[in-house]
Design goal:
The complex is a heterodimer of chains A (about 100) and B (about 550). Chain A is mainly alpha-helical and about 100 residues long. Helix content of chain A is about 90%, strand content about 0%. In chain A, helix 1 runs antiparallel to helix 2. Chain B is of the alpha+beta class. Chain B has 2 domains: about 290 residues, no CATH class; about 150 residues, no CATH class. Chain B is built from 20 helices and 8 strands. In chain B, strands 3-4-2-1-5-6-7-8 form an 8-stranded antiparallel beta sheet, covered by helices on one side. In chain B, helix 2 crosses helix 4, helix 3 runs antiparallel to helix 11 and helix 15 packs antiparallel against helix 16. Chains A and B meet through helix 1 and helix 2 of A and helix 1, helix 5, helix 7, helix 8 and helix 9 of B.
Chain lengths: ~100, ~550
């Protein structure tokens, strides 16, 4: 019983590490890509602003993954946020390309 | 994971810090030294200590450098000229070898590049000056590492910097009493003292640590996070650079020969445009071709931003083609200032020294953090250890890595400087030999630490580092005539050389003091029965 609890704990930590490093990066990348397109400034400036902000977004995502109650909730939260950002990004890119 | 935000952040702080602390220590040490990159290079070329005479006007130095390159690298596609300034009294030229041309092996040839140090007043190759990569090696080491592809190294360093950022933020969250911690130090209390030392160095220079970590990521941000360029420019980095930095693409060779225009009038025109501020660099492409360009960049001139304004001229006609960086856009300027803060090129000697001290406090923060993990784990195993058990594998490994990194790195740095003075001046591939001395000394220290990670090893390595560093001014006195006696008492030779000698002496004394305290502590512990060692003292704050 004790061993299995220990094993579950370790699995949870490993899962959070993957979520933080991989999931956090994907989330930061999506947010950067989205901000670069939607920020109301010249394109080069928008890209610059989005990229400058990206590392704080990444860091916040990592902190959040380790702060929530369970690894399961961390994954769900990341997935929902990524899905929302991804959808808006796809729509924004489609709008930009059809407009151009 | 433990319950509660503060506890889970403490856990995150401990592990994200521990996993990368040894690489971070190397990065911090190399980066801290890089604040005085030019001064280190000057110290490592004693043949130049007396050369620093009257300053040469930039236009004249540039003309002489171009003449040198026309004689020695006529087929090269690209020339770079660094003009002399108050920190470096020589002209430095660098060029890309023409395709198929073999490396010369002299004057520093690395990869596709050749470089030479020139006398700014005559334009002659300073062949008698010993070959060394000087401070440049330490600078590159702090983000390119060595013995590996720079691209891989930069990803590794980026990952470590990200861990550091997470460690800083989670460390701040775990703290309840951030202000009091600056003024708290409880010496000779084992774990508590290390915790206090870690807190004090971390909190005191917290703005610096946060700034240096974030701006470090920003220096390579388009490599780490290219997705903004991907979506907004469909990955066309050239178009983005063009818009963001005003970097127009360079032309291809036309095949038509055309002599390069004299550069002196172009330098003069650029200086007029910048209200007299002198240029720091001149880059020339395709010299001798009709599509040649001459790009002149202004020095930082005390500006915070690292994006130096530049002017590009047609190399065949001398006509101004483009001016960039005169009125940068806000976000672009923000990035420039962030990178500028990281590199501190704008800073005068005193402010630069403050950056150096902050960097040292970063080294101490990383080192005490690494030690703290060992101290805590040892305490958890105290009962077993007292009963005669051996330390766990993890504890032994961390102890050994700590010795190899914290006590071993000063030995490596010192070995680099010793090699600079002791190797024959005219030796072939001299820069490589100096760098091998750095890594050989470090490897010996690290391997010995793995074989015998104990207090005696700490003492031995700390003493070695202390003597080697404090011995550098003596070595300098024996091998050059710009020793402290001359530079300090008689005011001869550059102040930078005296500054270097005094700094390594102070660092050596500090290491010696650490070794001495450790020795006294060990002696005291042997006198008192081991049972009196405090253990199980839980820290209520739960940091780390």
């Amino acid at each position: 019983m004790r061993l299995s609890r220990n094993g579950r704990y370790r699995l949870g930590v490993a899962s959070r590490v993957v979520a933080a490093i991989g999931g956090g990066y994907v989330l930061a990348a999506l947010a950067t890509g989205l901000l670069a397109v939607v920020l109301p400034m010249p394109p080069a400036e928008a890209v610059m602003t989005a990229t400058l902000l990206s590392f704080s977004l990444y860091a916040c995502a990592v902190l959040w993954v380790f702060a929530v109650g369970s690894a399961w909730r961390a994954w769900t939260g990341l997935a929902v946020a990524a899905a929302v950002l991804g959808t808006i990004l796809a729509a924004a890119l489609a709008a930009v390309r059809s407009g151009a | 994971m433990r319950a509660g935000l503060r506890q889970s952040m403490a856990w995150l702080h401990g592990w994200s810090g521990l996993l990368v602390c040894w690489v971070l220590l190397l990065v911090f040490c190399g980066g801290t030294a890089s604040y005085f990159k030019d001064e280190i290079t000057l110290w490592m070329k004693p043949e130049l200590h007396r050369a620093a005479a009257a300053p040469v006007p930039p236009a004249e130095a540039a003309t002489l450098a171009v003449a040198f390159l026309q004689r020695n690298a006529p087929r090269s596609p690209r020339w770079f000229i660094s003009l002399p300034d108050e920190r470096s009294p020589v002209t430095q030229v660098l060029w890309i070898r023409a395709p198929g041309e073999p490396g010369s092996g002299i004057g520093g040839s690395r990869g596709r590049f050749e470089s030479r140090t020139l006398d700014p007043a005559t334009g002659a190759f300073l062949g008698t000056v010993r070959d060394t990569r000087g401070g440049e090696f330490l600078y590159r080491l702090h983000f390119d590492l060595y013995y590996m592809q720079p691209l891989w190294a930069r990803w590794i360093i980026g990952a470590c910097a990200m861990c550091m950022l997470v460690a800083i933020l989670s460390g701040v969250i775990t703290h309840r009493r951030i202000f009091q911690d600056i003024f708290t130090f409880r010496p000779r209390k084992g774990q508590r003292s290390w915790l206090d030392a870690h807190n004090a160095t971390a909190v005191l220079a917290l703005p610096f640590h946060l700034m240096i970590t974030y701006t470090g990521l920003v220096t390579l941000m388009f490599m780490y996070m290219p997705w903004g360029v991907q979506t907004a420019y469909r990955g066309d980095l050239q178009a983005f650079n063009n818009e963001a930095f005003g970097r127009a693409p360079l032309g291809l060779p036309s095949g038509q020969a055309a002599p390069l225009v004299p550069v002196a009038p172009l330098v003069a025109q650029a200086m007029r445009h910048w209200n007299g501020a002198g240029p720091s660099r001149v880059a020339i492409t395709l010299a001798g071709d009709a599509n040649a360009t001459v790009t002149i960049s202004r020095g930082s001139a005390g500006a915070l931003s690292v994006d130096e304004p530049s002017m590009r001229f047609d190399g065949a006609t001398g006509k101004l083609v483009a001016t960039s960086g005169d009125a940068p856009a806000p976000a672009s300027q923000t990035r420039g200032v962030m990178v500028g803060l990281h590199e501190a090129h704008f800073a005068g000697p005193l402010l630069r020294a403050l950056f150096f001290v902050s960097g040292l406090s970063g080294c101490v923060m990383v080192a005490t953090g690494a030690l703290l993990w060992g101290v805590k784990t040892r305490q958890r195993q105290a009962k077993a250890l007292a009963a005669g058990a051996r330390p766990s594998f993890g504890l032994r490994l961390v102890d050994a890595l700590n010795i190899g990194a914290i006590a071993g790195l000063p030995i490596a740095f010192a070995a680099y400087f010793w090699a600079n003075r002791l190797l024959p001046v005219a030796m072939a591939h001299r820069p490589d030999a100096e760098i091998r001395a750095f890594f050989a000394a470090w490897a010996v220290a690290a391997v010995l630490a793995q074989l015998h990670p104990a207090r005696a090893m700490w003492r031995a390595q700390l003493w070695t580092g202390a003597l080697m560093l404090a011995g550098i001014p003596v070595l300098n006195a024996l091998t050059t005539d710009t020793h402290l006696g001359a530079t300090l008492l008689r005011g001869q030779g550059p102040a930078a050389v005296a500054g270097f000698d005094l700094t390594v002496l102070a660092l050596g004394i500090a290491l010696g003091a650490a070794a001495w305290v450790l020795g006294r502590r060990t002696a005291a512990r042997k006198a008192v029965p081991a049972a009196r060692q405090p253990h199980g003292a839980r820290d209520a704050k739960g940091a780390t």
